[in-house]
Amino acid sequence: MAKAIRISQTGGADVLSFEDVEVPAPGKGEAAIRQTAIGVNFLDVYHRTGLYPQPLPFTVGSEGAGVVTAVGEGVTEIAVGDRVAYAGGPLGAYATERVLPAERLVKIPAGVSDEIAAAAMLKGMTAQYLLRRTFRVGPEHVILFHAAAGGVGQIACQWAAHLGATVIGTAGGSEKVALAKTKGCAHVIDYRTESFVDRVREITGGKGVDVVYDSVGRDAFPGSLDCLKQRGMWVSFGQSSGPIEPFPIAMLGQKGSLFATRASLFHYIATRPELLATAEDLFDVIASGVVSIDIGQRFPLAEAAEAHRALEGRATTGSTILIP
């Protein structure tokens, strides 16, 4: 009998229940995997609280890694014994075993561990599309990345620095500021003690930045817009501090003919070719040492609620994983 973290009602971390579950044999186009590591993301919190509603009950989680134990009819992408990882697709990652579409699985290359893959897939592919497709970052750009010491932030800031950009990060508290400075940030602003808007203007000589990457939401708005150059881009891809209240689109014009987008990874990896290309780019920068993946916290699967409390309390750095 497999084990999984299930939710029968939305709410706080205490609604996460560690339960026995039946895992069916894989059907046509599906694969069964025995999971070895599971990624924890703020997306999981959004599902748990009902911010992103899901049919109840359900198993939490969007990211994991493991070994293929069986494949269904017609599966050619992977084979039994392959080490694989995934991000997105059907929910259900918080489990010891699961079945999911084989086309959403990516082989883990030699030299990348299962834990690193589970910690990096969702966050790392998010960094890839943000930096390489939503706004293509290069040496000519100055960027502001909120939550630079977080899981996505650490990967993205290292990657952006490698691309030649000048990276300004925000972080909360001296320890996270110090950490962000080791992860590609040329400047780090402690949002607890400093106005990030004033500091960005100071650092850039009043010019502002080309792009702001914002997973914080409410607490960083509308200040993020005030950090941008004319015709700069605000990229919202999360809301860890809460959702942003509706605002008049005219504000973008008043603040400099700004561009704005609310981006989601799943729209950037919707097809298998997009998924494979994104994952390949990510694994390349990991394998080459351009990006190091910091697993700041490991929790047993049964203690998923504690992992959520730490994440929501901003008590984590880097990536958090669950061990089945």
TrEMBL record:
Recorded hits in Gene3D superfamilies, A to Z, give:
Medium-chain alcohol dehydrogenases, catalytic domain, NAD(P)-binding Rossmann-like Domain
Provide the alphabetized UniProt keywords: NADP, Oxidoreductase
Domain (Enoyl reductase (ER)) spans 11-322
EC number(s) stated in the UniProt entry for this protein: 1.6.5.5
List the SUPFAM superfamilies.
GroES-like (SSF50129), NAD(P)-binding Rossmann-fold domains (SSF51735)
By its UniProt entry, which InterPro entries does this protein fall under? ADH-like_C (IPR013149), ADH-like_N (IPR013154), ER (IPR020843), GroES-like_sf (IPR011032), NAD(P)-bd_dom_sf (IPR036291), QOR-like (IPR047618)
Q: Indicate whether Ubl conjugation appears among the record's keywords.
A: no
Gene Ontology CC terms, in alphabetical order:
cytosol
Query: What would you give as a GO molecular function for this chain, any one?
Result: mRNA 3'-UTR AU-rich region binding
- Asked if the record carries the keyword Oxidoreductase, the reply is yes
Alphabetized PANTHER family for the sequence:
QUINONE OXIDOREDUCTASE PIG3-RELATED, QUINONE OXIDOREDUCTASE-RELATED
Q: What is this protein called?
A: NADPH2:quinone reductase
| Biological classification of the source | Bacteria, Pseudomonadati, Pseudomonadota, Alphaproteobacteria, Hyphomicrobiales
